[in-house]
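Researcher: For the annotation table, I need structure tokens for Metacaspase-1-like. Please keep the output clean. Sequence:
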Amino acid sequence: MHHRTKSNTTMASRKARCKGCGTKLLVPPETQTIRCAICQSVTKVRPQDTYDRVQDPVRQATGWLKSFMSDVSGKIDSISSSGNNYPTAPSSGYGYGYYPTPAVPWPLIYPSVHGNKRAVLCGISYRSQRYELKGTINDVNCMRFFLVEKLGFPNESILVLTEDERSPYCIPTKQNIRAALQWLVQGCKSGDLLVFHYSGHGAQQRNFNGDEVDGYDETLCPLDYKSQGVILDDEINATIVRPLPKGTTLHAIIDACHSGTILDLPLLCRMTYNGQYVWENHSPRSGAYNGTSGGLAVSLSGCDDNQTSADTSALSGNTMTGAMTYSFIQAAQSAPGLTYGCLINAMRNAIRQANTGVRINGPITSFLRKVLFTGLSQEPQLSSSEMFDIYRKPFLM
């Protein structure tokens, strides 16, 4: 889950999408309706977000986080009815202690052209909710530009899921995210480069089969998680990690809270403040296998499993983005041929220097700073399906 916070400056204007032609419109403050100059359609605009008028930064920084986590926790008892209650007994012939993810047929609107480079980009704002996020769609737009313009990904091989998409099959519901992930790995072969980018809420729930080192499963929260439930790390691993054949590379870029081991990969790179590292074994305690079928899976996540990720304008200057997504793109395009170690260190340094989290205009006491920033700091994490020297292996996506 992103820990979304703002400065205490009231926003001068908003943006809305015309209901007639889809053009993005600039909406003056306090305006409730606006007429499009192109198609003359009148679009209703929801009221200015009350979080734009910050009165109590401490309450804003912690109140909605507790509310959201409580809300997610309240859904855990009903997970079994939403398809997330994996059996604890090993499935015959599957080798990980879980049954395969049920097949979800993807619609014809999904790209039919795969190619050797393809990506799924998912950004969820949870609009009109107290825990609404402001930078997730910006994250997806930036990531798409980066993949296409800088890394040569074909436009037609990128599947985008956001609330702004016109097709109902591209709204980031649980069903659609499941289908998109299955589309991503369908028919993949040696030489293929796959990317899964997610910007949205993440959470944790208790692990009941004893295979998690910290006792918790990490989860992604689809747009309809309240009614359909969350997506467990076990399911993500089964869907996009285990099918990867030899010669295939998957990069998951997960900008969410509690996302350090969201792919359930067997190895987590535990790094110190000054960049020293050791690979930590996160294989299931049962001895079951959670790696690939010969390919390489790498996860770059916004924070450790016990941390929160920030949604902030501190890095970009005036645009809300996920701190992890922004720092990743900034680092990845700054030095072609950089190693994984240099990439992670550059991301961490950018976030530290920006003091992401709660931004306050004016001086604050050291005690208040500790209250505001404790629990909001984040350290991007690297996990992998195989061990390698992070300061020698080039980052190639």
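Researcher: And a one-line annotation?
Model: Residues 76 and 205 are 7 Å apart (CA to CA).
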